[in-house]
Amino acid sequence: MNNAGVLLPERDAPLHELSSEVWDYVLGVNLRGCFLCAKYTLPSMLKHGGGSIIQMGSPTGIIACAPGLTAYSASKAGIMGMTRVMAAAYARNRIRVNTIVPGTMETSTNGYFLMDDLKRAEYREAVPLGRLGKPEDIEGLAVFLASDESSYCTGGLYMCDGGLTAI
Asked: What is the pLDDT of residue 110?
């Protein structure tokens, strides 16, 4: 499961204001990190006759819900594109590749801005289910995608965003 990522809202910016250093850093951690993890895991999966790779996307890579997060959004869109290409490339090798797309989650990554009651309310109101996500909301989906129960699932983007991308 490729679950490492970085979000730098205080430094990520609209494209014309974004520094090359922030762009390179965010894409390096988020997109290149997934690339490297998969690249060095795939030989073992090929040798052992299959496996499952799960990546973490974001609604920002699908809809324009964070117009100031250019690097982050691009990195997450890249992950989802890479997921689909890998799924097609390795399907005959019984290697499945899928992406979970979580919405705004109550995690340490988001903790600094969710401490602000107005921001918390703003993010919560944007979600049709009316609440922020918790890591536990993703657990069952991740276990399913990692298991043989999902043996016919590959190349998918699985939303766990409280309905954010449905509107």
From this structure: 83
pLDDT digits (tens, 9 = 90+) for 124-146: 999 999 999 999 999 999 999 99
- Cα(132)–Cα(29) distance, rounded to whole angstroms? 25
Best CA proximity match to 25, nearest among 85, 62, 75, 67:
75
Cβ(83)–Cβ(19) under 8 Å? no
pTM over 0.90: yes
Please give the radius of gyration of the chain, using alpha carbons only, rounded to the nearest integer: 16
Tokens 């992406």 correspond to 99
With 0-12 CB in 10 A as exposed, 13-18 as middle and 19+ as buried, what is 53? buried
3-class state of residue 122 by DSSP: helix
Residues β-bridged to residue 100: 56, 158
Q: What does the block give as tokens for 73?
A: 């959004």
Q: For residues 13 and 30, what is the distance between their CA atoms, to the nearest angstrom? A: 16
Whose tokens are 């997450």? That residue is: 76
Q: State the pLDDT at residue 39.
A: 98
The whole-number average pLDDT for the span 49-70 is 96
Domains and CATH numbers, the chain: 15-105+135-161 (3.40.50.720)
List the catalytic residues: 72
